[in-house]
Amino acid sequence: MRRYPLYIFDLDGTLYRGESVLPYAVETVSTLKSQGSLIRYLTNNSGQTRQFFLERLLRMGYPAELNEILSTATGAAIHLESIGAERTFVVGEPGLVQTLRTEGLSVVNAQPDGTVQPDGGESDSVVVGICRSFTYELMRGAMQRIRQGQPFVATNTDSSYPLEGGTLIPGAGSIVAGIRTCSETEPFVVGKPNPFLVELILVETGVPASEALVVGDRVDTDLLCGELAGCPTHLVLTGVTEVPPVGQAFSQDLRGLIEDSL
Ligand SMILES: [Mg+2]
Predict the structure, then answer these.
(1) Residue 196, in any domain of the structure
(2) What is the whole-number distance in angstroms between the Cα of residue 44 and the centre of ligand 1?
(3) How many angstroms separate the alpha carbon of residue 224 from the centre of ligand 1?
(4) Cα 239 to middle of ligand 1, angstroms
(5) Confidence class for position 151, pLDDT limits 50, 70, 90
């Protein structure tokens, strides 16, 4: 298979599942990087910091560096900065709050440990992500601010999230849907399938879209996102997709990316 100057990898279901590394994934990423390709790690997960993903990837043996990792929490901070927001109301988890703070934003409804509460000071924007402590009161806080005209930013709209072993839990999209309903407002969605984050990576690396391969396990998020950004895409069958769509480039596992040199 041809080599690309840039590979953008999804994490869950592509490089690992829970705490388990997927077969041939570390070897493939290491080979591509050692041969000079740029690597970026792109996750829709907003509940953790980049440092958390870095430590997990390094523990698993990936040759990862902090600047190669982009999550929807980081993307939300970049979007908020671009619209001039400074004080945001968050429906999310401590990893999202910590990421926004690291990027210089103030979170009006979070305690020092990053736990969010329904009330807080004046805000100029609302960010919604996965929030396993979600309550009606948090929904009310977000709704009232959005109805006042504050920008509504969603980290992602994933309906569910797979745990190790295959059990599904509600994803950020289920919380976003509730707030979208009561505020009667459409959010700006940071995560896949919106191509926002892939486009940021293309600008940052200077690689043209046609030279960047987007690799993932979900057709409706990872691959659609790549397509919308104008990138070629590659599906791996190590995650949620069992049957590849007709015409889609795919392989059973990541070995397919370096196959003909084995
Ligand atoms: Mg995935």
Answers:
(1) yes
(2) 8
(3) 13
(4) 6
(5) very high
Q: What is the pTM of this model?
A: 0.92
Query: End of a domain among 171, 189, 207?
Result: 189
Could you tell me which residue, 262 or 256, shows the higher pLDDT? 256
Same domain, 176 and 232: no
The verdict on residue 249 lying in a domain is yes
Tell me how far apart the alpha carbons of residues 156 and 152 are, in angstroms, rounded to a whole number. 12
| 84 and 143 within one domain | yes
CA of 45 to the centre of ligand 1 (A): 10
* Residues paired with residue 43 on neighbouring β-strands, in sequence order: 71
In a domain? residue 136: yes
Number of domains in the chain: 2
Per-residue pLDDT at 260 exceeds 80: no
Is 50 within a domain? Answer: no
- Tell me the CA–centroid distance for residue 218 and ligand 1, in Å: 6
CA 38 / ligand 1 centre spacing (Å)? 20
Q: Determine the distance separating the centroid of ligand 1 and the alpha carbon of 16, expressed in angstroms.
A: 9
What is the CA(14)–ligand 1 centre distance, in A?
A: 6
Whether residue 67 is predicted with pLDDT greater than 50 in this model: the reply is: yes
- For 167-217, what is each residue's pLDDT tens digit? 889 999 999 999 999 999 999 999 999 999 999 999 999 999 999 999 999
Distance CA 6, CA 206 (A): 10
| Ligand 1 mean position, distance from CA 189 (Å) | 17
- Sorting pLDDT into bands at 50, 70 and 90, what band is 162? confident
CATH number of the structural domain spanning residue 175: 3.40.50.1000
Going from the Cα of 162 to the center of ligand 1, the distance in angstroms, rounded, reads 9
User: What's the helix, strand, coil split of the chain in %, to 5?
Assistant: 35, 20, 40
3-state secondary structure 130-165: CCCCCCHHHHHHHHHHHHCCCCEEECCCCCEEECCC
Closest CA to 222 of 235, 209, 208: 235
Ligand 1 center to 191 CA (angstroms)? 12
Domain of residue 240: give its range: 6-44+192-261
